[in-house]
Amino acid sequence: MKKIAVFEFFIIIALLTVFIVLLKSGSKNQSTAQSSPTPAVTAMPTDKTLANTPDFNRSDIIIVLDAGHGKASSQMSDDEKESSGWTYYNGEWGDWRHFKFGKKTDDCMGVGCSGRVTPNGTCWYPIVNSDRLYEPEINLNNTLSAKRYLEELGYTIRLTRETNDENPSITKRLSYCYPDNDTSKSPDALVYLCIHSNAGSGSGTSYIALRGEYDHPEIPDNYVGFSNTLGMYVNDEIANNTPLKKNPPITYEPELVAFCKCPVICGYLEIGFYDNESDFEILNNYSDTIGKAIAQGVDRFICELLAK
Ligand SMILES: [Zn+2]
Question: How far is the CA of 172 from the centre of ligand 1 (A)?
Fold first, then answer.
C-alpha cells in the first residue's frame, strides 16, 4: 500500500509539472529573452505578385505614419505635455512602457506587466529621452513624403503629428490605430510605421526588429514576424533607391515602447544617420525619394498580406 501511495504521489507531481509547462508555453504574456541575431520574419505568399491585383480597396486600408520625436521637451509647458498624453510621475514627465497584462489602456506603472525594459532601464520612459536635434524635421519630411505617395496609391493615412511644434507621447501616438483615437474600440488601422533616423557613429539605413512575446491583447497572430517583414520590405526599398547603405536589422532594441504598446503590425525604420555628414546630406536631399520608397515597401507588404 505504501509503495503505491508513493508511486501515485510521483504521478501527480509529474502531471502538475506538465500542466504548468503547458500553461507557461501557451501564455501570450510570457516575455522571452532570446538573443537570436536573425530576426523572425514571416514568409509572405511567394506565388502572389503585385501584378495579381489583390481583392481589396486601398482606400479601406488605414495606415498610421509616425514621424518620430518632435518638439523639445524643454520647450513644452506642463499643460502641453499633459494634453500631448505624457504622464507626470514622481516629479517628472514621461510615458509608461507597457500596459498591464491583458489591458490595452491601463499603464503598467511598473507592475503587472512583462517587465521587458531596456538593459538597466525601467518601465518608465522619461520625456527627455525623446529629445533629438535635427531628427524631428527629417522624420517629418520623410513622413509627409510617404503620405503623399501612399495617398496617391489610394490608402487612407493618419499622422501622429503634422508639425515640428508638437511631441505626442508614444501612448498617444498609438491611439491613432483606433477610430477617432477611441481606444475602447477595436483598432481599425492595419499597420503602424515609425519613421526615424539614427545617430551615433554609423551610416546607412536599417529597421529595428521585434523579438519574443508582446503583451498587448489586440496584437494579431504573427505580430513579430509581420512587423519585421514590413520593416525589411521598406528598408530594402530605401536602400535600393537612395545612396544610403543597407544595414542589417537592429536586433538589440525589441523593448521599445511602440513595440510593447502597439495593437497592430508595427514597422520601425531608422533611415540614415542624421549625425553623419554624408547621410545628413542625403537625408536633406532625398526626402521625396525616401517617401516614395516607403510607400512602395508598405504597398508591397500589404498586397502580399492581403492577396488571395
Ligand atoms: Zn511595465
Answer: 17
**288 within a domain of the structure (yes/no):** yes
Ranges in the chain, pLDDT < 70: 1-37, 45-54, 308
The C-alpha cell of 55 is what? 481583392
Q: Which helix (H) or strand (E) holds 143?
A: helix 135-153
If you measure from the C-alpha of residue 304 to the centroid of ligand 1, how many angstroms do you get, rounded to a whole number?
34
Q: At 119, give phi and psi (nearest 5°).
A: -50, 130
Residue 39: its pLDDT value, please? Answer: 82
CATH code (residue 260): 3.40.630.40
Look up the pTM and report it. 0.86
Residue 111 lies in a domain: no
277 in a structural domain: yes
Give residues whose Cβ lies within 5 Å of ion ligand 1. 98, 108, 113, 123
Distances (CA, A) of 55 to 48, 50, 51, 190, 306: 12, 11, 12, 16, 8
68: domain range? Answer: 58-72+133-306
Cα–ligand 1 centroid distance for 98 (angstroms): 4
